[in-house]
Write a structure and sequence with these properties.
Shape: elongated
Bound molecules: zinc ion
Number of strands: 7
Order of helices and strands: EHEEHEHEHEEHH
Helix content: 40-55%
Distance between the termini: 100 Å
CATH superfamily of the largest domain: Cytidine Deaminase, domain 2
Number of helices: 6
Number of domains: 2
CATH class of the largest domain: Alpha Beta
Largest sheet: 7 strands, mixed
């Protein structure tokens, strides 16, 4: 399998990774598959990794992307995913990465995984430590070579339209949606905590009141006797 990464797609990935050095970010790779060649034309940013959300496998976002691609004339498909390893090096895949890539390859047999490290990129530009492509074979990951030169033949197949779309599309399509979800979760949690606190205060006041009433009654009873 030959993989060609368009400079536009890779710069978008690095742009997002470099502006989010504290967190792992992830997204999708868009392009074309022809015979034995995967051509990555564009990349999308889906959100930050970690927590409960598996942005690199968000089927809702995937469905939305596919829908949008179909609207644009079906010449591009999702060809894989990417994520960042800030300060950890791009020269390995974690156990979770391997599992995720396994799911990707069962969904799209030609799927590729791109890993980048913004810190390594700053040190030495594009290298094996800052940018690597992977596939799973026999349940182990292997780095696969790629080139970054679009040949005339690629361009004629891709069409200028696709490249124009890449440049127009920008980065961070669905980040706001992810951000809102986290905010909503945090809000519900905070509200729940406040309700529990208010309830406990009322229960304590109620018990104190009962205790006081009991004593008043027993005192009155003693006096009657
Ligand atoms: Zn990883």
């Amino acid at each position: 399998m030959r993989v060609t990464l368009s400079p536009a797609a890779l710069s978008k990935v690095f742009y997002v990774a470099l502006s989010n050095r504290e967190v792992e970010v992830a997204g999708f790779l868009l392009g074309q598959v022809r015979e034995d060649q995967v051509l990555v034309i564009d990349s999308l940013w889906v959100g930050s990794r970690g927590g409960k959300a598996h942005v690199e496998l968000d089927f809702n976002v995937m469905a939305k992307v596919v829908e949008e691609l179909e609207k644009n004339g079906k010449d591009e498909v999702i060809v894989g995913w990417w994520h960042s390893h800030p300060g950890m090096g791009a020269d390995f895949m974690s156990a979770i990465d391997v599992k995720t890539q396994y799911v990707w390859q069962s969904l799209f047999p030609y799927a590729i995984a791109l890993i980048v490290d913004p810190a390594e990129y700053e040190k030495g530009g594009i290298s094996e430590k800052s940018c690597r492509l992977y596939r799973i074979a026999n349940s182990e990951y292997e780095a696969i070579p790629f080139d970054m030169t679009l040949e005339l033949d690629d361009l004629s197949h891709t069409g200028l339209k696709s490249l124009q779309r890449t440049l127009r599309r920008g980065v961070g399509v669905t980040l706001t949606r992810m951000g809102e979800e986290t905010y909503k979760e945090r809000f519900t949690k905070r509200t729940r905590e406040l309700i529990v606190l208010a309830l406990s205060i009322w229960i304590i006041i109620f018990i104190l009141l009962l205790w006081a009433l009991f004593h008043v009654f027993s005192y009155m009873k003693k006096r009657e006797e």
